[in-house]
Amino acid sequence: MGSAELPAFGKREGEGVRLLNARQDAVDEKSSTRPGNPPPPDPEEVSRMFGRIAGRYDLVNHLLTGGIDVRWRNRMVRAVAGTRPARVVDLATGSGDVAFALRRALPDHVEITGLDFCRPMLEEAERKKAARRHCPNLKFAFGDILQLPLDDGAADAVTISFGLRNLADRARGLREMRRILKKESGRLFILEFTQPARWMRPFYFPYLRHVLPRLAGCISGDVSAYRYLNTSIEGFPPKEQITEEIETAGFQDVRAHPMTGSIVTLHEARA
Ligand SMILES: C[S@@+](CC[C@H](N)C(=O)[O-])C[C@H]1O[C@@H](n2cnc3c(N)ncnc32)[C@H](O)[C@@H]1O
Fold it and tell me: What is this structure's pTM?
């Protein structure tokens, strides 16, 4: 799939992303240089890493989470369906699990576009799509969240599941998400790992640090990719900061719904 193959909503014209106000610059700095946190991920490294594990990505996900990941994504999909969108963009779509779940939950006429900047992940998504009999109005295309190939106001809903954590510049990514949403009515849905509830930490962190990379390494053959998963989850800010960052990007009615002892949070907002 080439970068020339763009989603149905049209190619974004013009360069650069608007800065909403000076407060955003402060958050830019805060979100990428918080002391004691790992440096922001390098986009090329991230894309290469997901490219290496693309073939086993779904299997490892389901095994490592005991299948709860499906429930987390379904909760987000139900929330999206409740807003009755006509056009949905799933960012960081990876192998397309959210996009396929959206396809099952929404009427056939709803246009769904899955975007990612890792071609092997997109190839997995295309392979899964080809294996399905009925998959109308679902497209996958190359797209970088920091410079989305979509017009302003192109979408009624934007979803991103386990992708926000990987962005080199979260503030810019959030502004891009707002730009492509219809003003006032457009809705953002972010599913992401968060800092767990206190009671969960004695079990969760040892699992994340010691069990997960080894287990995932055995299945995928790539221990380093899953060490990155561990450090990126542990270094990710608490949901209160993510709420603040979403608000600073210009969104309104920002809400956070923690799940499974706050391992994961569904963030919702209006553009
Ligand atoms: C952990 S996977 C999530 C896949 C899928 N959304 C899911 O729920 O399983 C993260 C995905 O984000 C993509 N990604 C990271 N940064 C990106 C960016 N700047 N633009 C587009 N995709 C990006 C990666 O290529 C990868 O496929």
Answer: 0.87
